[in-house]
Write a structure and sequence with these properties.
Elements: H1 3-9, E1 16-18, E2 22-24, H2 29-34, E3 43-47, E4 53-57, H3 58-61, E5 66-71, H4 78-90, E6 95-100, H5 107-120, E7 124-130, E8 133-138, H6 147-171, H7 174-203, H8 205-210, H9 218-245, H10 252-278, H11 281-292, H12 295-305, H13 315-347
Parallel strand pairs: 5-6
Antiparallel strand pairs: 1-2, 3-4, 6-8, 7-8
């Protein structure tokens, strides 16, 4: 066979039968050598739902991913340590060692890191406390945490945050606003976990089915949808934070306009997510069109904003709340857009 044919089809091997019922096929010699295998070693065979097989040395299938993060003492900062830790977690690290390369990690910083790990990194635990840092082990059952289930949890939580944020804003319920802010931690936890699961599936094809990723082409749009949901939660949290700072309830004409726009945003958000769950292009298009038709609501709201007293100390805060609502609307429309992209890929 010509080298061109080999490049197009790979190496063609004939299936043989041994023992009357066992089908066998020989392995390419160069693959065996490169994998460091010898006669008697074991391999793991994974049957994929596209009728392909994934072949992997047993030692590779059971290998844990160790990550060592080192920071020079002169470069150490809590912010840098947290960012490096999150990056190692979402990239799929199983054992993460975070240490100061040439010194001792500050005790107070290690306490903050422990709290951060507990609050934001699902399945991660500190298993060793060293003078120079921490050793973290991540134990997550991949099969029980499919990406679609994580997105569903994020959707439900953000939906409740949106409703409670706007209730808190309308009624100047500062306790409810504080509760919304606390719930944002849960969204961050789910988002980090989602990115971790997605990265693991792209690094190791055998995990794709375990996490519920039907095809690798979905990964980009799924990550964008997760980011849209996380951003909507951020905007809801921002409005909740501004609600706490308000001196009084918004006056009636403005309150009514904001209530109408926020109710529409929540409806479009749910419609966009339901379109995603069902891969329904008509529903996704409807969400996109509804988002584009809110221009009249936004225009009415802007006209009311023009009449706000510039000397009122609440006015700048109210303007920021309105801008947040507009940004939130764009994020909901983007969810439907990414759903349309996924549907188009599947139809092609």
């Amino acid at each position: 066979m010509s080298s061109r044919k080999k490049r197009e089809f790979g190496e063609i091997r004939k299936i043989q039968v041994t023992g009357g019922s066992t089908y066998i096929v020989s392995l390419p010699k160069h693959w065996v050598i490169n994998a460091g295998l010898k006669p008697g070693d074991s391999v793991v065979v994974y049957a994929q739902n596209d009728n392909t097989l994934l072949l992997m040395p047993l030692k590779e299938a059971s290998r844990k991913k160790d990550v060592i993060l080192t920071i020079k003492s002169k470069d150490w900062s809590l912010g840098r340590a947290i960012r490096m830790l999150v990056a190692a977690y979402v990239s799929g690290g199983d054992i993460i060692k975070l240490v100061v390369k040439d010194g001792v990690a500050p005790i107070e910083d290690k306490k903050v890191l422990r709290d951060f790990i507990r609050r934001y990194l699902v399945g991660a635990e500190v298993v060793e406390d060293l003078p120079e840092g921490l050793v973290i082990q991540v134990i997550v059952n991949v099969e029980e945490l499919k990406v679609i289930h994580i997105l569903q949890r994020m959707h439900k939580l953000v939906w409740s945050m949106l409703k409670d944020t706007m209730t808190a804003f309308m009624n100047l319920d500062k306790d409810l606003a504080r509760d919304v802010i606390i719930r944002d931690d849960e969204i961050d936890r789910f988002y980090f976990l989602f990115i971790r699961q997605l990265n693991l599936s792209l690094q190791d094809r055998r995990i794709m089915l375990d996490v519920g990723l039907e095809q690798s082409a979905d990964a980009i749009n799924l990550s964008m949808i997760a980011r849209n949901i996380e951003k909507i939660a951020d905007y809801a949290t921002y409005i909740a934070d501004k609600t706490i700072k308000l001196a009084k309830k918004p006056y009636e004409p403005l309150k009514s306009k904001i209530e109408n726009l926020s109710r529409t945003i929540i409806e479009i958000f749910n419609e966009a997510m339901n379109a995603f769950y069902s891969m329904n292009d008509n529903m996704a298009l409807s969400a996109i069109e509804r988002a584009s038709k809110t221009a009249k609501l936004e225009e009415d709201l802007e006209n009311v904003m023009l009449n706000l007293d510039v000397c009122d100390k609440d006015t700048p805060t109210l303007r920021m709340v309105v801008e947040c609502l507009k940004s939130m609307l764009n994020e909901t429309a983007d969810i439907a857009e990414h759903t349309m992209d996924m549907i188009a890929v599947r139809k092609s």
